[in-house]
Each structure stands twice: as structure tokens, then as C-alpha cells.
Design brief:
By secondary structure, the protein is of the alpha+beta class. It has ten helices and five strands, in the order αββααααβββααααα. A five-stranded mixed beta sheet has the order 2-1-4-5-3. β1 and β2 form a beta hairpin. α3 runs antiparallel to α4.
Length: 216
């Protein structure tokens, strides 16, 4: 069997799995913003753009960091300054990220309508389904799906924003939280990325958690 045919069959099988679980099991759709440019589209974090446009949360610039994992470690360390328990939870998510994830090439992900309200997108751009998350891991241990083509075009900071979205939503899907959509997930992700959190107090952090809907 040719390599191309093998890749196509694998992609089709994953799309079938994606569709089969889209009702009850596949609850979280991670989006990015795709904007046109002269050669190839460029990508923005939906959560961070929306956080700045709606909530006035100013994101910290991570453009000098070339590995999304290092950005995630930085963000988790921020959380640890207020909340060691939650930071340790996200560290376990990061440690298992490689084995929990599957990057799917050669296919588009269908839209998972879990936004929970109006989303802010720059004029002329569009939201693209870049990731999805199973409530329960698949038999071969997969928790997250990522569109490999989109992932390769993202900057490390956009990749980190997408992965942190998945981590926050993973906690949100725990029975004690039972999130029904991603609206407040996007808010908390933007807050964690923001200078507002860096300059804020523990009371500010507690208010952000309360608004997000986490049960402490």
C-alpha cells in the first residue's frame, strides 16, 4: 500500500471517529482565527483576541519564545503564584500532552458549536476549528485532536494559547465543574495570558475563577 493511500485512509478513519463522537463525547472545539494575507493566511488566538476586544485583557508578548511548551510552563508558573493546586493539575496535563494528542493531516475538522455566545473576530477573518477534545480518552489513549496543517502554520504563542484552552476546558469538563460551552474557558485563557493577571492580586484571581465558573 502506498504511503499516500495509507495517510488518506488514516485521515478518513479519524474523521469518522470525529463525527461519531461529536454528539456526546467530543464536547470541546478549540478555534483559532484565520486572516488572509498576500501569500498564506496568518493565525491569531481566538481567546486572546476576544479577551482584549471584549474584556480589555492585554496579552503578554511571547514572540521571543520559540517553543510553545516553554510558553505553557511560563503560564502555569503564573497560575502557581496564586493557585498551586490548579498549577499542578495543568502540569500533569502538559506532561502527558504528547501521548494524549493526535495531529491529523489532510482533513478539515467540522465546526463544534460550543462557543456559548457571540465571539469576536476581526473583520475579514474567520474562525477555524483547530482542535477538539474527547470527554473520555479513546481506547488508544487519545484525549485531543489537532489539525496538523493549521498547527504547522501557527506561531508558538498561538499554539500555546490553543493548548492552554484545551487544558482549561479539560478541567472545566470535570463533573464538579461540568462546563456546557467554552465561553468562560476563553475568558480564563485570556486572563492567564494577560498583564492584568501579572499585575493583579489574589482577590483579582479569585474573581476571575468565579466568573469562569470553576468550583474551587
Amino acid at each position: 500500500m502506498s504511503l499516500v493511500r495509507t495517510i488518506l485512509i488514516s485521515a478518513l478513519l479519524m474523521v469518522s471517529s470525529f463525527s461519531a463522537f461529536a454528539g456526546d463525547e467530543l464536547l470541546n472545539g478549540g478555534d483559532v482565527i484565520e486572516c488572509p494575507s498576500y501569500e498564506v493566511p496568518f493565525y491569531l488566538s481566538l481567546d486572546l483576541y476576544e479577551g482584549q476586544a471584549i474584556y480589555k485583557l492585554t496579552p503578554i508578548d511571547f514572540t521571543g519564545i520559540k517553543d510553545f511548551r516553554l510558553i505553557l510552563k511560563n503560564l502555569i508558573n503564573r497560575i502557581a503564584s496564586f493557585d498551586a493546586t490548579r498549577a499542578n493539575l495543568y502540569r500533569t496535563y502538559l506532561e502527558s500532552f504528547e501521548r494524549d494528542s493526535r495531529f491529523v493531516s489532510g482533513t478539515e475538522f467540522g465546526d463544534i458549536r460550543d462557543e456559548g455566545g457571540v465571539i469576536a473576530i476581526p473583520s475579514g477573518c474567520q474562525a477555524k476549528q483547530a482542535a477538539a477534545q474527547f470527554r473520555s480518552q479513546t481506547p488508544d489513549g487519545i484525549k485531543y485532536l489537532f489539525n496538523a496543517t493549521l498547527w504547522a502554520r501557527m506561531s508558538p504563542s498561538v499554539q500555546a494559547g490553543l493548548v492552554m484552552h484545551e487544558f482549561i476546558y479539560r478541567e472545566g469538563l470535570l463533573p464538579k465543574n461540568n462546563f456546557k460551552n467554552s465561553q468562560r474557558v476563553r475568558y480564563f485563557n485570556a486572563y492567564v495570558h494577560s498583564s492584568n493577571m501579572v499585575q493583579g492580586t489574589k482577590a483579582d484571581y479569585a474573581n476571575a475563577l468565579s466568573f469562569t465558573g470553576f468550583k474551587h
